[in-house]
Design a protein that fits this description.
237 residues, Structural Genomics Hypothetical 15.5 Kd Protein In mrcA-pckA Intergenic Region, Chain A, 27% strand, Alpha-Beta Plaits, elongated, binds uracil, 3 domains, 7 helices
Length: 237
């Protein structure tokens, strides 16, 4: 990687602004390869140099990937005057880095949401041409049967003429309320709710379980998050 200014490199962590980095350097609190740098505009290669502030070693990464268990009642937007967004659930340093959600879940939908500042990866995961599988658990009103499974599998045309790609409906239980696992390969607005509505069923609860190779960590409670492991990040790419 090419050399970059120290203030830019440290500000990229989202923890300090560039002017804060300048002050830290002046106060002698920054070390690069164990030595006090001459100035905040000195240039270093982030691949090879080791950076520390107040004795804490910093990880300088090109991108950040966060898995969030989105709770119901929170918007999948970066900013919204009308309510709490998923970014409000993350620490300030991530917001400063410009993290954004990869795709949207409805306000009342729970489950797996990936947030990143890696625009290229987000583009790939969302591209309709890539057909990335998204798997959901759904609880719906009414009974589900073979005709519903066949309709999902055949690629439904909704009453508003929206044509859906073939989807998998795996019925978990059927009764006055039914449960199912649904896999879709696209992400049109309210898609699962609209597909069930076309079969005369109301979605009562919806949770995303996975997206491509990435599966929601069951140890994350709604509202909790963690960064992806190296293996998860590699598989996703
Ligand atoms: N389909 C929906 O209807 N809502 C979601 O949040 C996701 C998929």
């Amino acid at each position: 990687m090419s050399k970059e200014r120290l203030d830019k490199l440290l500000a990229s962590t989202g923890r300090w602004s560039r002017s804060e980095v300048k002050r830290l350097v002046r106060e002698g609190r920054v070390r690069v390869d164990g030595a006090i740098p001459a100035a905040a505009d000195a240039k270093y290669d982030p691949e090879t140099a080791a950076f520390a502030v107040d004795g804490e070693t910093l990880r300088l990464r090109a991108h950040i990937y966060v898995m969030l268990h989105k709770p119901a009642g929170v918007l999948s937007a970066t900013e919204d005057g009308r309510g709490k967004t998923v970014l409000d659930l993350l620490p300030e340093e991530y917001r400063r880095r410009g993290l954004f959600p990869v795709g949207r879940l409805d306000k009342d939908t729970e489950g797996l949401l990936l947030l990143t500042d890696d625009g290229a990866l987000a583009h790939d995961l969302l591209s309709p041409k890539k057909h990335v599988d998204k798997r959901y658990y759904a609880r719906v009103s009414g009974t589900l049967d073979e005709a519903d499974r066949a309709a999902f599998a055949s690629g439904m045309t909704l009453p508003d003429r929206l044509v859906c790609l073939p989807a998998e409906l795996s019925i978990v239980s059927s009764g006055a309320e039914s449960e199912a696992l649904v896999t879709i390969r696209e992400g049109k607005f309210h898609q699962i709710k609209r597909m069930f509505a076309a079969r005369g069923k109301n979605v009562l609860y919806l949770k995303r379980l996975s997206m491509g190779t990435l599966t929601l960590d069951t140890s994350l409670a709604p509202g909790a998050w963690r960064e992806l492991t190296e293996a998860e990040e590699k598989n996703l790419k």
